[in-house]
Amino acid sequence: MAAMATTEDSLKWSAQYQVARSDRTAKLQGDKITLPQSALEALLAAAPVVSIGKDSSTPYTLTFDPFNPYTFAAEREARQQLSDRQQQLPHPLTFRLVNPQNGRIVYAGIREFSAEENQIGLSGVLQDALGLGSGSSAVTREQTPNGDVEMGGSDISTPQVITVHAKQLPKGTYVRLRPLEAGYDPEDWKSLLERYLRDNFTTLTNGEILSIRSGRREKYQFLVDKLEPDGEGICIVDTDLEVDIEALNEEQARETLSRKLAKGQHAPGTTEGSSAGGALIIGDQQTGQVLAGEYVDYELKMWPRDGQGIDFDLEVGLDEAELDLFVSPFSLRQRAKPRDDEHVFGDFSSRSSKRIRLSATNVELEDAETLYVSIHAYSESTEQDKSLPPIPFVLRAIAANSEISDSDSIDNTAGTPSVDELICKNCQQTIPKRTLPLHEAFCYRNNISCRKCNQVFLKNSPAWKTHWHCPHDASHGNTPLSQRKHNSIYHPPTPYPCPGCSSFDAPTLPSLAHHRVTLCPTKEILCQFCHLVVPQQGPDDPSFTDPEVLMSGLTPHELADGARTTECHLCNKIVRLRDMKTHLMIHDRDRISRPKPRICRNALCGRTVKTTKGRHVVQQLGLCDECFGPLYVTSYDPEGKALKRRVERRMLQQLMAGCGKTWCRNAEFCRTARSNISGEDRGLSAKEALPLVKPVIDHLDSGDSLFFCVDEASQCRREIARLLAETETDAEYEPEWWVRALEEVRAGTGSEAELEEKVVRAREWLGKNAPRRGEVVK
After folding, report:
1. 517, 343 in Cβ contact below 8 A?
2. What's the pTM?
3. Which stretches make up the DUF7590 domain (predicted)?
4. Percent share of the chain, pLDDT over 90
5. Is the confidence at residue 412, as pLDDT, over 50?
6. Domain covering 14-46+92-166, topology
7. Where do the structural domains in the chain lie, given as residue ranges?
8. DSSP track, 518-550
9. 97-121 average pLDDT score
10. Sequence-ordered list of residues with C-beta below 8 angstroms from that of 286, at least 6 positions apart, any chain
11. ∠308-311-315 over CA atoms, to 5°?
12. CA neighbor of 486 nearest in space, from 358, 387, 347
């Protein structure tokens, strides 16, 4: 039944509410509000009355006959009594909010009716638009529509009151947005804007400010400048919305163009810019360059998955350059490219040679489709860094040798001295015994060894003068830049705040990266149930410490989204999405453990012997019901003598008179079949037939095949099953299962196209119900 509302039906309702405290509305996003339960009751009372009943063409009485005028009165009375009329709220439910003290208006959608009595919960976006928050940038209206209270100053000491009107908006077809800052790159905000509107907004208000925060700490602000249909607001639910982005003014357009041109001079792939990145192949090396503060991204799509690990080696082309190496898998649970504050594997060291080794047993590589590798040039965000030339590098991806331990270093060249060699106590190098005195005299005069890391330097070299050791850990380096980099990453003056969630402050940059790829609520995943890229935890999803989340292995979003139900395509039961995998495993276990069906003992029959579960099956010679039916009688025959006589009589009748069926191929025991095959229409006499029948009767209990004439479909089905079971592609199923599958789809006679269609359906049935050859229950 469907609700039908006329065009003149409209929801007319308004009320005033005090704004609830911000701590109670922290979870509200976009244009969402909460209202008290009494508001829902008032809305239902004010909702237009619509008819909900049967279609006008469907009779309300069983005896109604349009050609019988005597049934019209009963039908008319039934329509008057059974046609329901009730209040129906429109969908989606939208509201017009007005701040009486300053005249600002904004449209909103309802989140839920759970607010305290006489209070309204507003999201931060709505509070700014209505001028309730400090520093609001919303557009001020010149007058208050609909006769609301006149404009006045806002006093935060008095309770803030908002007027709420129920107002249905037209479906939007077009919106024009204007950036509030110059230089926005569409590649950065286009997908963000689409997801931000879809997840958080029901309406758009003319003059509203949209503020979108990216995971990279950027914030994009857009002014809603024009709407179609023209008006104060539109509804953006269940509609195709065309979006245009235009500069706020000519000055902003020129600034954006100049930034794009400047960025194009150092664009990836140019001689003055960073390398473009691209595909990475095991065994090959990639030579490139990267500007300070930028990234060069590579993708490794194919690597050995047979137990070998992967080594990513990075060689830095400049001695004092600071390059970082990051690796992240691209999978259902990891979608972002590696960055300094969001990566799975990383190397922040100041060595000129870096290596990241991924073991084949690493859990992060499970279900990984691609490996993202990023080269990052450390930058202190100074003007001097921006003018530096690109830093060259060489990147290699090689299959890891299992004989080399992880403790082996790239720079490890030390060896065991021979009998004629000694180790210098100052520089730790192996020196021949005969030249050791001369070497030590020179070495102690010109070289100096660091007592902490045993590195050797020239006494007057800049590297020794700038050599440093961290007092908090074992890190060390040779340049002031490496020391500043180490301190900013591992010992920052203030903790690193997570750009996605405000509840986590990381003491170091690696710990922030670990948080963002593990427990950060805003980490993007590909949900296995809704198949959308979404944050792994929403505002209403359970926490990561929830026992059900820990036991299920799902993210909080997947656990909540997986609570939706669907129908199992095998048994038609209603199952939760998150339980469907286990439910199908039960079906699969049942399929593998099913016993092989029994084919009818009749060599020409393409049926299986049906048995009833929990009920004793009467012995019927191993024949199906159709083949045993002509032999069945109700007389008591404990020794089966009467049954043998009936079998003998039927076979003699086939040999002497035939079955008369043109399709019969029972050449050994049927006169008609012999005539169909060889053209010889001669029946055997009783004397000739008895010697052929007697051995069959004597061995009736042995289980040997019988030869009874059957219908054409069953005969064809048996032959088709035999041929399919012998083919290379279909031999994974036993012949008995092929007979059962063809029987289920009623294959047999028909055209060639119909037969091919039924064979395809039989294969589908086998995939769902039959075990394959050699398949066992695990």
Report:
1. yes
2. 0.64
3. 273-399
4. 31
5. no
6. Barwin-like endoglucanases (2.40.40)
7. 14-46+92-166, 48-88, 174-259, 278-399, 633-710
8. TT-TT-EEE-TTT-SEEESS-TTSPPTT-HHHH
9. 91
10. 278, 280, 298, 394, 395, 396
11. 165
12. 347
